[in-house]
Amino acid sequence: QVQLVESGGGSVQAGGSLRLSCAASGRPFSSYDMAWFRQAPGKEREFVAASNWNGGMTYYADSVKGRFTISRDHTKNAVYLQMSSLKPEDTAIYYCTGRASQAYTMTHYDDPSTYTYWGQGTQVTVSS
Question: CA 29 to CA 43: how far, in whole Å?
Fold first, then answer.
């Protein structure tokens, strides 16, 4: 079992930055692919970014490419999402999620049903 706890959400003006953190506990974090999804009111949960088990492969949604960066620190059992140039459309609850790694290159990384463990989410609100 893996427990995930997100933090770092908040309110920011458009153009600002936030850094989300996800602390993992339980099974060896280093063997898990990790990802961030988000869900805005009235919308389906959507993929934001993913990292393979060692951070060597990262993937991003087109809507955040060039603005968001996913990273992980195995010494702290943590994964991060650095968000810059935030837009009002980035407003959502952001969820950290993980799954046991199957290969170096991730497949179906944007499908939430392929992930096993989820955090409770952290709210990000971007005002114009």
Answer: 30
- With tokens 């949960």, the residue in question is 45
Residue 72: count of CB within 10 angstroms of its CB:
21
Q: What is the DSSP string of 52-79?
A: -TTSSSEEE-TTTTTTEEEEEETTTTEE
State CA 127 to chain mean position distance: 21
List the beta bridge partners of residue 100. Answer: 32
CB 83 within 8 A of CB 90: yes
| Position 30 confidence tier, pLDDT thresholds 50, 70, 90 | confident
Share of the chain above pLDDT 70, in %: 100
Region 21-38: what's the mean pLDDT? Answer: 91
Q: Using CA atoms, how far apart are residues 61 and 51, in angstroms rounded to an integer?
A: 12
